């Protein structure tokens, strides 16, 4: 149920984000979801793409520093309190959220929340038990 | 294998007798043939006949790089120009370069010293030596070349640069010995990995020198290339590479002390320090004809260890160069050697030796910024983890040099890769 996310190191310099996105575009990698974490000196670009291997190849060729890791994607109702319901389950289960980002899917009424927690396996169990829908990778990649 | 067992495994007494005999001769020879030495000796009120024991070398004045510059171009030569068959210059970062002249016998003695060095690294007639040191006025390229010829090994005179071709040749020719700067070796290792050719490399040993490096860098090169990464030392003023070379014990570099007489002196008093203690390395060439050097101050910081080595050699060992008395940085009054920063950096897991030290003085106070490339291994998708690594590096440097520095993480390959000597320090202070 885990989704592959690719994270890329970004130096805080003019044009560096463009360079990464350009390298991906040239390799015909479509970005499904992205977020940027930034500090005063550097940033981390996190993306979800349909074909992670293709993206990794392009990034390697471009000489970027990156890694691949697992995240989970949760579908919550696109209404007030939707996100809160998912987070409450995790908080009550004693799980810390490292970061999250959200986007609204084109196809239905759901918002998709990408989550990284300090324990992904337990998070999946807890969310499932609470009846909160976890999106399988296939579905996320084709959003 | 030992190239010249009789000399390299000599007893201490035999060696000292030989050194004294040669010292007496070279001091007289320098005095008689180089006006500079005659003048200096007179000023110091010393004559060649005052040399009665090896210790008497301390009566003689030092020679410095500035003296050699003053004599530019041929002022230090002891023979007529017609006897000089080759010249080299040392990399002059400031002002005029230093010119070194070699007679035919000097080339022979250099070849011999280099044959000893390469043999120490395991070279034989069957070796294929890929020589990435620059050919030309720099002594690195031709020094290795002459030594390889002397042994009868196959030398590939490729020089530095054209990394793709280097990798291809390394694989296709089955290079067994690599001679280059350690930073270029790492760069080559990266390229080999990138092309997925690591398994096809047949390297057994690397003879690395011409810039300062550390034990951690050795580990890194050995891990990536699966070879013995050995240290070579030399300088144009004395002959070029081959003055000293590490054996596979990796516990110091054997100095060819029957040819180049070493002393280690205190940086402050210039008095000799006991074996094992650090100080500036000073050399006297014992047999060189073209340009004899008497007590030349190398500015390199090292210490000496005597005694028979496990490899069988008895020649004195010098420790890896840990700094230079002239390129040490003074930061807020504290002496900092760039090599200490490198050591601290590499002590942090996952950090690769790609860094640059930038010294500034923004508000009348020195600041050091160390830019470190983020390697795949140290990268994380979490800001917190990256910040932790950054802080770990800062802590490690502080523990090593006693100063808090600012560490900045930069993208890989954003720092210049050098093919010759790596430029590690950028001093932006206007002093």
List SSEs of chain A in N-to-C order: EHEEHEHEEHEH
Largest sheet, strands/sense/barrel of chain B? 9 strands, mixed
Q: Mean pLDDT of chain B, nearest integer? A: 92
What spatial form of chain B do the alpha-carbon principal axes imply? globular
Task: Describe this protein's structure.
The complex is a heterodimer of chains A (143) and B (431). Chain A has five helices and seven strands; from the N terminus they run E-H-E-E-H-E-H-E-E-H-E-H. Chain A is of the alpha+beta class. In chain A, strands 1, 2, 3, 4, 5, 6 and 7 form a seven-stranded antiparallel beta sheet that branches. The model of chain A has no long low-confidence stretch (mean pLDDT 89). Chain B has 431 residues and is of the alpha/beta class. Chain B has two domains: 1-324, 3-Layer(aba) Sandwich (Rossmann fold), CATH 3.40.50.12780; 329-427, ANL, C-terminal domain (GMP Synthetase, Chain A, domain 3). Chain B has a nine-stranded mixed beta sheet with strand order 4-3-5-6-7-8-9-14-13, with helices on both faces. Chain B has a four-stranded antiparallel beta sheet with strand order 10-11-12-15. A four-stranded mixed beta sheet of chain B has the order 20-19-18-21, with helices on one face. In chain B, strand 8 (240-246) and strand 9 form a beta hairpin. The interface between A and B is medium-sized, with 21 and 18 residues.
Secondary structure: elements and pairs:
The complex is a heterodimer of chains A (143) and B (431).
Chain A lengths: L2 E9 L4 H11 L6 E6 L3 E7 L3 H10 L4 E12 L4 H11 L4 E8 L5 E8 L2 H10 L3 E2 L2 H5 L2
Antiparallel strand pairs in A: 1-3, 1-4, 2-3, 4-6, 4-7, 5-6
Chain B lengths: L4 H4 L3 H22 L1 H9 L21 H6 L13 E6 L9 E5 H17 L7 E4 L7 H13 L2 E3 L6 H11 L3 E4 L1 H13 L10 E4 L6 H11 L2 E8 L4 E7 L6 E3 L4 E6 L13 E7 L10 E7 L1 E2 L11 E2 L4 E2 L4 E3 L2 E3 L1 H9 L8 E6 L6 E7 L9 H19 L4 E5 L14 E3 L4
Helix pairs in contact in B: 2-3, 5-6, 7-8, 8-9, 10-11
């Amino acid at each position: 149920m885990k989704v592959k996310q690719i994270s890329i190191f970004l130096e805080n310099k003019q044009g560096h984000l463009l360079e990464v996105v350009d390298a991906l575009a040239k390799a015909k990698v479509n970005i499904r979801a992205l977020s940027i974490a930034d500090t005063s000196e550097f940033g981390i670009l996190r993306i979800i793409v349909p074909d992670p291997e293709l993206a990794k190849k392009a990034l390697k060729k471009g000489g970027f520093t990156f890694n691949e890791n697992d995240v989970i994607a949760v579908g919550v109702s696109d209404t007030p309190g939707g996100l809160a319901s998912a987070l409450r389950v995790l908080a009550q289960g004693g799980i810390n959220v490292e970061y999250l980002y959200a986007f609204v899917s084109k196809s239905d009424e759901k918002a998709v929340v990408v989550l990284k927690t300090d324990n992904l396996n337990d998070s999946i169990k807890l969310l499932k038990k609470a009846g909160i829908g976890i999106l399988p990778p296939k579905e996320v990649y084709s959003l | 294998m030992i190239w010249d067992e009789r000399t390299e495994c000599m007893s201490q007494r035999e060696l000292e007798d030989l050194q004294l005999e040669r010292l007496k001769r070279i001091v007289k020879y320098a005095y008689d043939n180089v006006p500079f030495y005659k003048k200096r000796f007179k000023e110091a009120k010393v004559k060649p006949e005052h040399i009665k024991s090896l210790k008497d070398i301390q009566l003689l004045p030092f020679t410095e790089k500035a003296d050699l510059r003053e004599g530019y171009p041929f002022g230090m030569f002891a023979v007529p120009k017609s006897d000089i068959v080759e010249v080299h210059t040392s990399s002059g970062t400031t002002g005029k370069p230093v010119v070194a002249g070699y007679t035919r016998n000097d080339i022979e003695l250099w070849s011999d010293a280099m044959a000893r060095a390469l043999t120490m690294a395991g070279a034989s007639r069957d070796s294929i030596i890929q020589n990435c040191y620059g050919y030309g006025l720099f002594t690195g390229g031709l020094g290795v070349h002459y030594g390889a010829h002397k042994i009868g090994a196959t030398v590939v005179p490729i020089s530095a640069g054209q990394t793709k071709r280097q990798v291809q040749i390394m694989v296709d020719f089955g290079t067994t010995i690599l001679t280059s700067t350690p930073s270029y070796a790492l760069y080559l290792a990266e390229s080999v990995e990138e092309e997925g050719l690591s398994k096809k490399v047949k390297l057994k040993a690397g003879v690395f020198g011409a810039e300062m490096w550390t034990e951690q860098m050795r580990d890194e090169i050995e891990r990536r290339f699966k070879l013995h990464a050995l240290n070579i030392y030399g300088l144009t003023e004395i002959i070029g590479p081959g003055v000293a070379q590490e054996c596979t014990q990796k516990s110091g570099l054997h100095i060819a002390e029957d040819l180049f007489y070493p002393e280690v002196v205190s940086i402050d008093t210039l008095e000799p320090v006991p074996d094992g203690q650090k100080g500036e390395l000073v050399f006297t060439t014992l047999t060189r004809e073209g340009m004899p050097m008497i007590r030349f101050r190398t500015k390199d910081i090292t210490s000496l260890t005597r005694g028979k080595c496990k490899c069988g050699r008895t020649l004195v060992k010098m420790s890896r160069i840990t700094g230079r008395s002239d390129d040490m940085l003074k930061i807020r009054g504290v002496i900092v050697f760039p090599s200490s920063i490198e050591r601290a950096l590499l002590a942090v897991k996952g950090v690769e030796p790609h860094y640059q030290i930038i010294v500034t003085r923004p508000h009348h106070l020195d600041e050091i910024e160390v830019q470190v490339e983020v390697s795949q291994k140290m990268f994380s998708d979490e800001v917190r983890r990256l910040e932790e690594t950054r802080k770990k590096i800062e802590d490690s440097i502080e523990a090593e040099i006693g100063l808090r520095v600012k560490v900045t993480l930069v993208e890989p390959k954003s720092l210049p890769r050098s093919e010759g000597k790596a430029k590690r320090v950028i001093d932006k202070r206007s002093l």
